[in-house]
Structures are given as C-alpha cells and as structure tokens.
Amino acid sequence: MKYCDIIQTEGRRFKKKKVYYILNNQKYDLDVEDFVKAKVKFNASLIGTLMLGLELDLKSPLNNKDASTYLEVTAFLDKDNMDTKIYGPYYLKELPTYNASEKTYSHILYDRMLKTMVDYIALDINYPCTIQQYYDKLIETLGFTSSVSLINGNLIMDSDIYDGINYTYRTVLEDIAIANGVLLYVDDNDVKAAEFGSDANLATINDDILKNTNIDFGEHYGPINSIVLSRSAESDNVFIQDEESVSKNGLNELKIKDNQLMNDNNRSEFLPGLLSKLNGIEYDIFDTELVGYGGFTPLQKVKFETGNKEYYSYVFNNEIEFTNGYKEVIYSEMPDESTTDYSSADKSDKGLSQVFLIVKKQEKKINGVVNEVNEAVSKVVEFEESLDGIKLSVEETNNKFDKEITSKKNAFGNPIEIDDAGEYYLESIAIEGKSVKVNDEIKTVQGKEFEGKKGKWLEQVTYNKNNAIFDDSYKNSTYTYNEFEADDISVVKNGTGGTFYAQYKLDI
After folding, report:
1. CB of 238 within 8 A of CB of 275?
2. What is the reported pTM?
3. How far apart are the first and last CA of the chain?
4. Residue 56 in contact with residue 93, Cβ under 8 Å?
5. How many secondary structure helices (H) and strands (E) does the chain include?
6. Pair type for strands 156-157 and 129-130
7. Is 191 helix (H, G, I), strand (E, B) or coil?
8. What per-residue confidence (pLDDT) applies to 450?
9. Which one of 88, 102, 119, 235 is most buried, by most CB atoms within 10 A?
10. What mean pLDDT value characterizes the chain?
11. CA–CA separation, 273 and 181 (whole Å)
12. Mean pLDDT across the stretch 312-320?
C-alpha cells in the first residue's frame, strides 16, 4: 500500500519521525529522540505565488540557514504494508526560538521560494522583450527550472519596470503570476503552476475520512465571470465580462489591484487572457478536519460526500500536524468581495472621457490625466508629481466644424467612390482655424452601415487658401498624409499659410 492509502486506513501507525538536513552535500541525521512536533502546511490564494511551510519543534536547534532540511515520516499497518514520505527541502526563515518551559526549539522553515525574498537586481536581458522571455530569464537567474507557458506571455515589456522600485524577486514573480492568472509554487527546484479544476487528480473525501466533530460547509463562491483591473486607489478601472454568464448567474467579479505589470494604458490587453484562465471558476467554502489523507497539492480539486450530498471545491489550505498522533485540516475561505461601479469603468483606457492616475514607482512620479470630450470642446488636463514638484498642463480644443457633414460628395465636389480594394472614402472636410477633433457623424452612405466600423483618418495638406480641388488621387500626389486609428483621438491642425483637409477612409 502507498503512503496515502495507509494514512486513510483504520489502525495505521507511525514510526518515529526523523529530521535530517543536508549542508555542502553532506547529510546530517538528528537523533529521533530530538523530534517533538511538526506541522507541514501551505496557504494558497487563487492567483499569485505560494510557499510550502514547516513548523518544527525539536530538542536540539538547527542553526544554518543554508542547510536544506527534511522531515521523514513512515506509516505502516504491518510489515507488508509500510511506506515512507519525505517532506522538503525547507530552509530556515530565521534562527530558532528557545522555549524554556518546554526545553525545546521552535523553527519556522519554508521551501525554496524563500530564496526569492531578497532585493531584486535588474535582469541581464535585452528590451523590448516578451513577458515570457522575461519570465524565463527570471527563472534562470533564480537558479530554478520551469516549463510554465504564460497566457499573456506574448505581450511586450519595453523596459525593466521593476528596477529601482524596492521589489524582491518574490514580488516580481507574484506580479507576473497575477497578470497571467496562475498560482506559482516551487516543487523542489521546479517552478510550477498549480493545476486548477482538473478531474484527473480529483480527491474524494467521504464520511470515513471526515472527522465528525469538525465539518463546516458554508457559502458558494463564483462562478467568476468578470475581471476588473484597478489602479489609483480603485478609482480607475477597466474590465472584461462573460456577458452570458453574468446574465445567467449574476455578476461575480475578481478585482486585481495595482499590479505593476498591468499599470500602464495597455493593461486592457491582459484582460482576454485573464478571463480565459479564470472564467467559470467556482467552489464551495469549507472547513474540515480529516482522520487522515496524507496531504494534497495546492488547488487540488476535491469532492466531499457527506449527508447524502456532494460538495466540490479546491484545497487552498492544508495543515498536517505530527506529534504522537496525526491531525490533518483542509479549508477554503471566501475571497474578499468587490463591487465595481461599472458606469465609471471602461473596457479599455482608450475611451474619450478619462480620469486616471499612473504611479511610476521606478521614476518616483505620479502622472494624472483628466480628459473630457463633448460636442463643442475637448479639454485635457495633465499633471505630473515628482520630487521636483508638480507640473500642470491644460489643452482645450474646438470641436466645431464649418459645415454639416451631410453631403454624399466630398468637400471638393467629388463623388464618394469605392476604390479597387473595396474601401469607401467618405467626406473630405475643409477645416479652417485652430486644431479640431473629427467626429463620426456619418452613419450610412449608399445604404451601407458604417457606425462602429474600423477606419483611418488620412491627413492631407494643401497650401492653397482658395481650397483648390484636391481629389482622391492623393496616393499619386506629392502631398503628404498621416494615418490615425479611428478609435484614437485624431487631431487635424491647420498648417502655416494653408489649410488641412481630413478624409475618412473606412475599411468594410
């Protein structure tokens, strides 16, 4: 029989527990009489990073933080059914505490993730690079191995955003894990993503394993169907939702706050990947004590069969205590609830009216933008706060046109045409005066619906104040043009001694 099978069998016993450590490739065994108590544990969140821990009470102290420590436990029924499990390696977080009344030493140890809790030093990697390339280099720098493929790994990092902001390697790894919707932990020396929702490793807990004195099944969490990215003290939110699930199950959001990797105005690019990883996750909240199971992996799926009912959940917290006996507890907790005001949130940072703050820890700056656009005026207020003080700029733009956009001919009298590529060229607008922002008032031309379609503004320049004819042959002309995405705020400015003409090209 295997270790976990023996643990779950009535009448199982334990041999003396043994502690040993390895230092400079040399193994050192502690006397079995030194063992007093041990607690093997982990406490996981849905996404982020996780450390496996060991609390150890011994009659002799462990004093070397470089040593890798192991707990060896042998369970048996008889001479033919015996198996040993080794927990570790673990490393001292700090030197042990002496308990004078018990004459024992209390130790707190963690797995190799503890080694990442030192100040971050910029990686030796060329920028720009993908997040996956950065992650792989980070793992290599830490001396780990990993085959984790990040869902948002193809997104680009233009520079080292973690350099000089007082992060540890652990904080950086946590940031990356959250931005990719995974829980990372170290298995010996290999960084893995906890398997979430796999029936292949389903653990079934029935009344034979459940301890009758401590069974508590409470609320139900999920299913997750909305991901919200929040910054600036939760005043600035972008989101993505599974609309069908929201309609069917009600809104269940997961909010991620102030993630450094998702702090800039490209953060909405992370949302589809995060939703694909986390959409639909749900589980029952529970707190149970077990007669014995033998341990679980982080986020392992578990089914409880009790009271003629079934409950499904995941193991977020597992504690196994070894003394003269054996005690095992598993439980989950309700995540912090959040309720976003979606009326003031957006699906990206490219909306016309915006209010946001970006904290740039690396540069020790806070940048803010207040941008309001209405039919007549666009007003943008930007400020930057740094150690040198506050800089403020205000820009106001007139949005009025000289004429209504209603004609099916362009501003020069030329008919609207379809070119060989099947692209419609809509109104050309002669604009006098100061800079303007061009709107999208034309909804249909020749029976075609254009609203919401993607297009580009082509900025065309002529220096004839008399508005000389400028036809659609701009591609063969000597005039210059610039392209703007239609969902950007496209500003057309008048040139020295002349007029700018803006023409909208719509791809359908």
Report:
1. no
2. 0.69
3. 67
4. no
5. 5, 37
6. antiparallel
7. strand
8. 35
9. 88
10. 74
11. 8
12. 93
